[in-house]
Design goal:
Layout (H helix, E strand, L loop, with lengths): L6 H15 L6 H4 L5 H15 L3 H15 L2 E2 L4 E2 L4 E2 L6 E2 L4 E2 L4 E2 L4 E3 L3 H4 L11 E2 L4 E2 L4 E3 L3 E2 L4 E2 L4 E2 L8 E2 L14 H13 L2
Parallel strand pairs: 1-4, 2-5, 3-6, 4-7, 5-8, 6-9, 7-10, 8-11, 9-12, 10-13, 12-14
């Protein structure tokens, strides 16, 4: 991760990144309406406040932004340049997470800790959240937990759960859905089967 330029240049670069990487956006004016851009911009400001010791003000800003965008980024997290959060809904990035440059994050991605029962036993100041290298793609619903490292250029597929280090350039893929034969039973039985399988099988 290279040194960051000034705040205004970083915000402008974020805007250009949305235009460049979201094919549904046609121009900068439309990019201003991208659902995750306000969360990213607020984090850029909140992170600077957090570093200056204005923790409560930074947390307040991110709490308001979370209520509006559905994206929760702790102001202590470090985000690199040209990070692209697509859709944004339900993205969670924890306090000690570090995200490199040119990372793509899809909706429902979590960069979290493994749980307070482990974290309270760690030394004060120890990292609890992942480090994500440059050029990583985090697919929809991917979950990366604990002080693990995801190497540069890795792809974490949709719905994948990562709890160990991932080498640079690796692919981590969750099992895909299994197509089963059509069920030709009575309509009521079919309805019950589909309802049950949606939540409990």
């Amino acid at each position: 991760m290279r040194p960051s330029p000034g705040l205004l240049r970083t915000l402008a670069e974020d805007l250009r990144t949305v235009v460049a990487r979201d094919p549904s956006v046609h121009g900068r004016a439309e990019a201003l309406l991208h659902p995750a851009l306000p969360a990213l911009w607020a984090h850029r400001v909140g992170h600077r406040w957090h570093r200056r010791g204005w923790r409560l003000l930074a947390r307040l800003l991110m709490t308001v932004v979370r209520a509006i965008t559905g994206v929760e980024i702790h102001p202590g997290a470090v985000l690199g340049r040209r990070v692209f959060i697509d859709h944004g809904a339900a993205v969670v990035i924890g306090e000690t997470a570090r995200v490199g440059d040119d990372v793509t994050i899809y909706h429902r991605v979590t960069l979290g800790a493994v749980g307070w029962w482990h974290d309270l036993r760690r030394p004060v100041g120890a990292r609890r959240h992942p480090v994500v290298g440059d050029d990583v793609v985090l697919g929809a619903g991917a979950t990366v937990l604990g002080p693990v490292t995801v190497g540069a250029g890795a792809v974490i597929g949709a719905q994948a759960l990562v709890i160990a280090d991932v080498p640079a350039g690796a692919r981590v893929l969750a099992p895909t859905a299994v197509v089963t034969a059509r069920f030709d039973g009575p309509p009521v039985v079919e309805l019950l089967r589909r309802t049950a399988s949606a939540g409990s099988w």
